[in-house]
Amino acid sequence: MSTEKLVVGLAGMPGAGKSVVVNVAVKMGYGVVVMGDVVREEAAKRRLEPTPENLGKIMLELREKEGNNVIAKRCVSKIEKAKEQKVIVDGVRSLSEVEEFKKHFPKFTLIAVHASPETRFKRLYHRGRSDDPKNFEVFHERDMRELSVGLGKAIAMAEHIIINEEKLETVKEKIREVLEKVERKWMR
After folding, report:
1. What mean pLDDT is predicted for residues 119-125?
2. Residue 87's pLDDT is what?
3. Residue 104 has pLDDT above 90, yes or no
4. DSSP output for 27-81
5. From edge to edge, which strands make up the β-sheet containing 31-34?
6. Longest distance between any two alpha carbons in the chain, whole Å
7. Which residues, at least 6 apart from 2, have a Cβ–Cβ distance to it below 8 Å?
8. pLDDT at 40 over 50
């Protein structure tokens, strides 16, 4: 058990702005573990293209075979190996993942970032990553898949929620304030 590390879990729907939170955290000295990388690594192992359909299928398959906390379990060693004492975990999707992290890292806090579906779709459509939706139907299917594994519950149970609908600098300031508050709680 790595009781010394401060671990901040980050939940949010696709396109809500998790990467903005991660970028601010990195500037504040955090290491980063991206939960989606576990699924992308699995896709590479299986020699599958990292399309939204393939990654979604793999995510659901892993959870079905190894339990809802499988991705979190695979991330624990990545967190332990991080050289930083503060680590942000991008992509928490369920309360079972939260429980898995809390089991290993007593100094764990869950934060969420939120933006409207319209804002999120525009961001994803223009971002251009291989797993980004090409139309609103694919976007909606992905949202429903994410919600089906418990993402909405994780967001609802977050200790802090950052609304990402304002100017970037305003949002970054909110993020810094939240992370400083988390650090004050655990690093007295």
Report:
1. 93
2. 98
3. yes
4. HTT-EEEEHHHHHHHHHHHTT----HHHHHHHHHHHHHHH-TTHHHHHHHHHHHH
5. 31-34, 86-90, 6-11, 108-114, 160-163
6. 47
7. 79, 80, 104, 105
8. yes
Tell me the C-alpha distance between 103 and 2, whole Å: 10
Residues forming a β-bridge with 108: 7
Q: What is the pLDDT of residues 48-95, one digit of tens each?
A: 998 878 988 999 899 999 999 999 999 999 999 999 999 999 999 999
> What gap in Å lies between CA 142 and CA 136, rounded to an integer?
10
Q: At what angle do helices 70-81 and 52-66 cross, to 10 degrees?
A: 100
How many secondary structure helices (H) and strands (E) does the chain include?
A: 9, 5
Residue 3 has a pLDDT of 55
User: Domain extents for the chain?
Assistant: 6-182
CATH superfamily of 6-182: P-loop containing nucleotide triphosphate hydrolases (3.40.50.300)
Six-digit token string for 44? 């590479």
Q: What is the dihedral of CA 134, 135, 138, 139, to 10 degrees?
A: 100
